[in-house]
Amino acid sequence: MPVESLFEEDHLVPIALVGSTLFTFSQLDGCLYRISNQGQAEPGGYEQILLSGFLAPFCVPGHPFVYDLIHDSATLTVREFPLVATGLGQPRERAIPSPSNQTHRIASLIPDAEEATLRVVFEPLTAAGDTLLLDLGCGDLRPVAPSHGTPKCIFADGTLVAESEVGWSMVRDGNSVGHGAGLIVAAASEFVVIKRSNKSGARFSVVRGAGEAEIVAPPGWSLISVAASDTRITAYGIHAEKGQHLLHMDPCDDCFTLAEAQCGTSQVFAMGAATDPVIRSTGLAIGSCWRTQRGLIAGIAAVRRELTVSQITPAGLPCVYVHAEQPPRGQELVVCLHGGPDSHELDDLRWINWQAAIRETAKAVAEVMATRRTPEVSIFGVSFGAWVGLQLAEHVEPRQVVAMSPIINLQDHLQLHGDEPEFRRWAAVRFGPTAGGPDDGEQHTRKCPVRVVVIAPDEDEVVLPSSTRRSTDRATVHGREWSLVPVPGHHYPRTSAAAEHRWASLVNAIVQRRDSNKRAFSAIDASTGSS
Prior knowledge:
This is Prolyl oligopeptidase family protein. By secondary structure, the chain is of the alpha+beta class. The protein is built from eight helices and 37 strands. The strands form eight sheets. It has an eight-stranded mixed beta sheet with strand order 30-31-37-32-33-34-35-36, with helices on both faces. Helix 2 packs across helix 3. It is elongated and about 75 Å long.
């Protein structure tokens, strides 16, 4: 599967930087790709690196090699392919005595900072067996001291860090020296970065041999992703009024510095102890790019210099405003209400008072329409954003509402996920006052006064398709102008084809369904929470 769209680029994970060439692994097709287009003058292209002759390829972020590890009987054959600017270099092959494949299997390849090497993790095939570590360089084989989980790295002081379904743990000199909840998202020579997340957001911490310390965001900032090397901790954060930025911190310090330029929506990737994190940034105006310690590499999407993206606060509501450099008079405003991870739970507290939040948003829309001279408005809502959009329509008199993957019947949604403990706790705070009251169910299908286009995935696992169809049918029975547009896929697209189909349906709903008076568009993103 070639990398030809943002959707496919979204699923790339960088593994090595060789000169100005970045090597990435695709989570969609399991293939290796390289890109080296410098700067952002033109969009970049990806070249696939063929691994057809590999039996068991392994990579370690930051290490410019692909290892083919062939475990046969009591021998491990290692084929080591260097990554070079043009792709794969000539391999070096060697055989190392190993545990028998009748007793152990290869689980992973991990960095060992104490011995400056990589170690193959051999897991036992029976519960009574020991986990073993094999030095890929000298062939040294040693058992792992009892730990909770699979080894992930070894610190310079010999501390082994492991990870399991319940969290992380550390062992040094055969003794447990710490454990806790969360997943390891970055490993350096003397520390790891831990992430703990739930529906209300994410928390990060640094774990060293001496203990755990929370990574504290600057006031008003929410950290979305964090990665680290021996010399730098890099975070992507969002702020209600200052927008999206990258933040940097020395691992020995406890204070972030803010990058000067806004970065669009970003992903931060750890590249091992010796290489600073790689950042992928995307945005309507900035296109897509990879930020590396050796410079900027253009991604698949081109810069759009005709667009302007700014942070505005109409009626005190933080919004992202997108428009053409010189928008013509008579344009239409599209209000975008996002749910799910799009809002990163930034304004989670606003969910507790629904009516106040909707009135606040209506005032913001009115102010933008007045100051930007936009006579028409449409509402586009995703997931819970669609539920809010139906209510907002009662206040701002839009031309139409486009509801994608929509939560329409609140009670159906709460019952569907009621057996999830975390969801129950989250929902009790935000929906407890409305449960059983007049805001239950789909009352807004009857009250929404305008045309509604429902874009409904046929395999939606978050919102039952049957519930969406039932709500649409009931609205029609009540004399409302509702139409259902089925699209393939899940709540969020999992394939490029599903993403493209959904995007085409959205464009058709907003642009093609307009009346004969064609106008240009601008958009305001007033994110309102999460499903």
